[in-house]
Write a structure and sequence with these properties.
It is a single chain. Helix 11 packs parallel to helix 12. It is built from twelve helices and 20 strands. The protein is globular and about 60 Å long. It has helices at about 40-55, 80-95, 110-115, 125-135, 180-185, 190-205, 235-245, 265-270, 285-290, 295-310, 330-340, 370-390; strands at about 30-35, 60, 70-75, 100, 120, 160-165, 165-170, 185-190, 210, 225-230, 230, 250, 275, 315-320, 345-350, 400-405, 410-415, 425-430, 440-450, 455-460. It has three domains: about 30-135, Methylthiotransferase, N-terminal domain (Rossmann fold, 3-Layer(aba) Sandwich), CATH 3.40.50.12160; about 160-390, pyruvate-formate lyase- activating enzyme, CATH 3.80.30; about 400-460, Nucleic acid-binding proteins (OB fold (Dihydrolipoamide Acetyltransferase, E2P)), CATH 2.40.50. It is found in: Cytoplasm. One of its GO terms (molecular function) is protein methylthiotransferase activity. InterPro entries: Elp3/MiaA/NifB-like_rSAM, Methylthiotransferase, Methylthiotransferase_N, Methylthiotransferase_N_sf, NA-bd_OB-fold, Ribosomal_uS12_MeSTrfase_RimO, rSAM, rSAM_horseshoe. Its cofactor is [4Fe-4S] cluster.
């Protein structure tokens, strides 16, 4: 059985976002936006739209209402590149005036070769170049009495949670990844700037901050953990400072370095959610070596045991690659055995695929597609069984959840161990009438399946 959130041709972090704003005023220039890829790209889209709004542009929720369309692309995998090209083509057909940005923009010839009619191509986080391109296609026409900078910026997520990007780029040289080539080496934001943004988000009603970067645990290394305005650029200090703001704080993309254990007491004390999203990718040491991954499977199991000892309620999420070049059946079996021992709570899995420019393409002994599919299926069956058992053990427990959506049939919520889009949900189908998105509710769990929970509300603790 496969996890519906992790089909073989879809990355778990894939997101497609649209914005539905108020109607534009007469004569106001309008721009559309399609945002593809991971939450880091979503933050880039929010920043671009915030700048455009500040310059007097309206944001159109459809092609026909836009004078031009920005497509923020993903270029991490060939399947993601194909989706980006498809989105560009759709925008060209439906609108005709298209500006391309994002990770795939680092390969402009690849884009223009497929779609020569695009108006401009810019690379990842090149905000000024995107704005210049928009100005050239749709000149700004601000009304100084109406068009003001939005107090909390433009958000492409529900108002009760927000992604908080703390750095750009990555210093790792994993053979299957071209992110450092597209986004460059690690560049950390000053800690006081991150905290200032987080404070504004919380003041605007955000209840959950999702901390993202390419390598969250390396935050501040490039600036030597500089301290300014009372805040130090180290992930432990940053997590503690964020935890003082009163919102849920969830950490994504954390590599299992030894200093990560310093975060666990913050989780046990309730300052940070007891949740770690760690991209282990594999467990066999030879596969990890061929991947050029900065981790060792045996030590990782020891770290997991220590984390759970110090914070028993911690939820561990990870992603893995099966069918990496040279992966033998014995190496894959080691991964399955490791998964049995690690008992991770949330798991996603990719089938390896070549990415143009990645060093892994040149490795020998590529795995046949049917073998990759078989291994993916077996891996997900094992992960599903672990998830089913862990969720079944929660029946009868009382958990704190955050409400994401409410309709006529019930409320869709998440526990402290579930991130939006990539993890499971807790559903409330009775006694939900007074709930609203962003509420934090205590529920008693009364049912579980492979990936989701059902419960009934006991108390509404926050609105």
């Amino acid at each position: 059985m496969s996890d519906p959130r992790n089909p073989p041709d879809l990355r778990p972090d894939l997101a497609r976002a649209t914005l539905a704003p108020a109607a534009p005023r007469p004569g106001q220039p309008t721009i559309g936006m399609i945002s593809l890829g991971c939450p880091k790209a979503l933050v880039d889209s929010e920043r671009i739209l915030t700048r455009l709004r500040a310059e007097g542009y309206a944001i159109s929720p459809d092609y026909k209402g836009a004078e031009a369309v920005i497509v923020n692309t993903c270029g991490f995998l060939d399947s993601a590149k194909a989706e980006s090209l498809e989105a560009i083509g759709e925008a060209l057909r439906e609108n005709g005036r298209v500006i391309v940005t994002g990770c795939l923009g680092a390969e402009p010839d690849y884009i223009t070769g497929a779609h020569p009619k695009v108006l401009a191509v810019t690379g990842p986080h090149q905000y000024e170049q995107v704005l210049d391109a928009v100005h050239g296609v749709v000149p700004p026409a601000p009304d100084p009495f109406i068009d003001l900078l939005p107090a909390s910026g433009v958000s492409l997520t529900p108002r009760h949670y927000s992604y908080l990007k703390i750095s750009e780029g990555c210093n790792h040289k994993c053979r299957f990844c071209i992110i450092p080539d597209m986004r460059g080496r690690l560049v950390s934001r000053p800690a006081h700037a991150v905290i200032r943004e987080a404070e504004k988000l919380v003041d605007a009603g955000v209840k959950e901050l999702l901390v993202i970067s390419q390598d969250t645990s390396a935050y501040g290394v490039d600036i030597k953990h500089a301290e300014a305005k009372g805040h130090r650029a180290h992930i432990t200090d940053l997590a503690r400072d964020l935890g003082s703001l009163g919102a849920w704080v969830r950490l994504h993309y954390v590599y299992p370095y030894p200093h990560v254990r310093q975060l666990i007491p913050l989780m046990a004390d309730g300052l940070v959610l007891p949740y770690l999203d760690i991209p282990f990718q594999h467990a066999h040491p030879e596969v990890l070596k061929r991947m050029a991954r900065p981790a060792a499977a045996a030590k990782t199991l020891d770290e997991i045991a220590a984390w759970r000892r110090d914070c028993p309620e911690i939820t561990l999420r990870s992603t893995f690659i099966v069918g990496y070049p040279g992966e033998t059946e014995a190496e894959f079996q080691t991964l399955l055995d490791w998964l049995d021992e690690a008992q991770l709570d949330r798991v996603g899995c990719f089938q390896y695929e070549n990415v143009a420019g990645a060093r892994a393409n040149d490795l020998p002994d590529h795995v046949a597609p049917e073998v990759k599919q078989d291994r993916w299926q077996r891996f997900m069956e094992r992960a599903q069984a672990i998830s089913e058992a862990k969720l079944a053990a929660k029946v009868g427990q009382r958990l704190e959840v955050i409400v994401d959506a409410v309709d006529g049939e019930g409320a869709t919520c998440r526990t402290r161990g579930d991130a939006p889009e990539i993890d499971g949900n807790l559903f409330i189908d009775e006694g939900f009438e007074d709930l609203a998105p962003g509420d934090i509710v205590t529920v008693e769990v009364d049912e579980a399946d492979d990936y989701d929970l059902w419960g009934r509300p006991i108390a509404n603790t926050s609105r």
